[in-house]
């Protein structure tokens, strides 16, 4: 091909490109072609593709992770009290090879991102499932403790939604995680929660005080038992013979004093007192 021919060929390509004959699919996305109302079974991979003006259209769907915000939910707890507001975000992605089938099956469930123009497959389906899961899982928990169960509820919702998606479309959806961003209870419930927390704190304080009193009482009992045992040991060792021996020793020391003239003899004394009477000078 001559240089002039190559130039005209390049001009022709540019003309087709700018006239809308060619299109591009971004990395991580796939294109779904619909020709005369019939969806092509094969996805268009990332790169350049040929358009067929007036005959077909190509929609670009993302196969990347999608985040859906589900807001302003008011589910009822197990005690039949409704939340004032609950906001959730679910993260999921769809297998690239399953997007065509999803589009054929759930044609009205996809949503278009206005900023990028890319479509989110089964957006409406996943939104509905996570909304239903929120109402179902919250109904299993009492409102007074619901604020402490956010992680457990989110995990249960994750499992719930994944199971339903897998049951209807095996190996197509993958839910990454569910995040409960906000839980706002009714003012009366919040007051009950505050009262319950305050009562719990008082109960904990009373429990600690009771435990301290028990420990102090136990210490006193232990000390009393120790004293009683010591007294029992002493009492057991003070025999009649031992006491008499001690009396004799005391009297002997008393008698040794040169100035002693008087001796007090205990009652029932069986031994002979030792008396030191000074000799006359």
From TrEMBL:
Which cell locations does it reside in?
Answer: Membrane
Residue ranges annotated for the Band domain, each copy included: 24-218
Q: How does it sit in the membrane?
A: Single-pass membrane protein
* Classification via Gene3D superfamilies: Band 7 domain
| Predominant location | membrane
What's the protein here called? Answer: Band 7 domain-containing protein
The species this protein belongs to is Uliginosibacterium aquaticum
């Amino acid at each position: 091909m001559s240089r002039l021919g190559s130039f005209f060929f390049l001009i022709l390509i540019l003309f087709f490109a700018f006239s809308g004959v060619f299109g591009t699919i971004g990395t991580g996305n796939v294109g779904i072609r619909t020709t005369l109302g019939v969806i092509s079974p094969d996805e268009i991979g990332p790169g350049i593709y040929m358009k067929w003006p007036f005959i077909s259209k190509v929609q670009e769907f993302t196969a990347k992770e999608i985040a859906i915000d589900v807001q302003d939910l008011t589910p009822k707890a197990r005690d039949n009290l409704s939340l004032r507001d609950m906001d959730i975000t679910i993260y999921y992605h769809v297998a690239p090879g399953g997007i065509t089938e999803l589009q054929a099956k759930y044609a009205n469930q996809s949503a278009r991102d206005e900023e990028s123009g890319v479509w989110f497959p089964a957006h409406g389906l996943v939104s509905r499932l996570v909304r239903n899961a929120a109402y179902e899982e919250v109904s299993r928990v009492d409102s007074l403790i619901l604020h402490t169960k956010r992680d457990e509820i989110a995990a249960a919702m994750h499992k719930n939604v994944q199971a339903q998606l897998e049951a209807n479309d095996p190996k197509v959806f993958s839910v990454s995680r569910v995040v409960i961003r906000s839980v706002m209870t009714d003012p009366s419930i919040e007051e009950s929660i505050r009262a319950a927390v305050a009562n719990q704190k008082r109960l904990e304080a009373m429990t600690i005080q009771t435990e301290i009193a028990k420990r102090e009482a136990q210490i006193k009992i232990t000390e009393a038992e120790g004293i009683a045992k010591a007294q029992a040991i002493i009492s057991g060792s003070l025999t009649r013979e031992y006491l008499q021996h001690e009396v004799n020793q005391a009297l002997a020391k008393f008698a040794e004093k040169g100035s002693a003239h008087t001796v007090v003899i205990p009652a029932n004394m069986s031994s002979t007192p030792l008396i030191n009477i000074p000799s006359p000078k």
